[in-house]
Every structure is written in structure tokens, then in C-alpha cells.
Amino acid sequence: MVRECAVYGVPDETWGQVVTAAVVYKWPRVVHVVPAIPKNAMGKVNKKQLTAVFDTEFKV
């Protein structure tokens, strides 16, 4: 996740200038490593099912 970012040019001998990005990361308070993310028939994340899994299995 990214809190904010900026893109700017930096001098380059070959191209004259190359695109460079400065990124401030936004770290989550908790990270769960899981074998799979539940998805619906359209391939989108099923947030309701995901929340239910974490509410029952991973009490914070």
C-alpha cells in the first residue's frame, strides 16, 4: 500500500532523463499470510467471506 508518491525526472546520459518515483509506504497494522484469497464467480475478492474468516480464525 502506498500513502503518497511523486514521479519526477532524473538526468540520464542515454535518454536525457528517466522517470523515477519516490514512494512513502503505508504499512498495515496486521498482516495475515494465507494460502488463498476467497473470490467470487467474477474473480473479485469476496470481502465478506474474507472478513468472516479473519473474524473467526485470527482474533487481534
Automatic annotation (TrEMBL):
Ranges for domain AMP-binding enzyme C-terminal: 2-25
Matching InterPro entries: AMP-bd_C, AMP-bd_C_sf
SUPFAM superfamilies recorded: Acetyl-CoA synthetase-like (SSF56801)
Domain of life: Eukaryota
Name under which the protein is recorded: AMP-binding enzyme C-terminal domain-containing protein
Organism this protein belongs to: Aphanomyces astaci (Crayfish plague agent)
